[in-house]
Amino acid sequence: MKSFVYAWRGILHVFRTQRNFRIHLAVAVLVLLAGVGVGMTSLELALLALTIALVLVAEVINTGVEAAVDLVTLDHEPRAEIAKDVAAGAVLLSAVFSVVVGILVFVPHLVRLFY
C-alpha cells in the first residue's frame, strides 16, 4: 500500500509543480472528449489514451531526472545539462508523435463530419 501512496505523492508533486504537465493533462481531456464527440471507436480512443499516457509518463520521468540532477549538482555541469536536455527531448518526441497519432485518428472523422 505504501508504494501506491508514494507513487500518488509523486504524481501530485508533478501536477502541482509542473505547468507543462497540467497543460498536457488539460489537452488530453479535451482530445478524449473530442474523440467521443466525433464518434471514435473504442480502439481509436484506446490509441489516443495510450498516446496521452506516453506523453504524461515522459513528463513525469523528465521531472524525476531534473530533480535527481539538481540533487547531484546545482553548478553548470555539461553532463547534467545533457541529462536534463535528453529527458526534455523525450517529452518533446512523445508530444510530437502524439500529435501525429491524433491527426491520423481524427482526420477521417473530421472529413466525414465536414464533407
How would you describe this structure in keywords?
115 residues; mainly alpha; Helix Hairpins; elongated
How would you briefly describe this protein structure?
With 115 residues, this protein is mainly α. The chain is built from four helices and no strands.
Describe this structure in words.
The protein is mostly helical and 115 residues long. The protein has one domain: Helix Hairpins, CATH 1.10.287.3610. 90% of the residues lie in helices and 0% in strands. The chain is built from four helices and no strands. α2 runs antiparallel to α3 (42-72) and α3 (42-72) runs antiparallel to α4. The mean pLDDT is 95.
- Percent helix range: over 70%
Beta percentage is under 5%
In CATH terms, what is the architecture?
Orthogonal Bundle
Along the chain, the helix and strand elements come as HHHH
The best one-word shape is elongated
Write the layout of secondary structure elements.
Elements: H1 2-17, H2 19-37, H3 42-72, H4 78-114
Helix pairs in contact: 2-3, 3-4
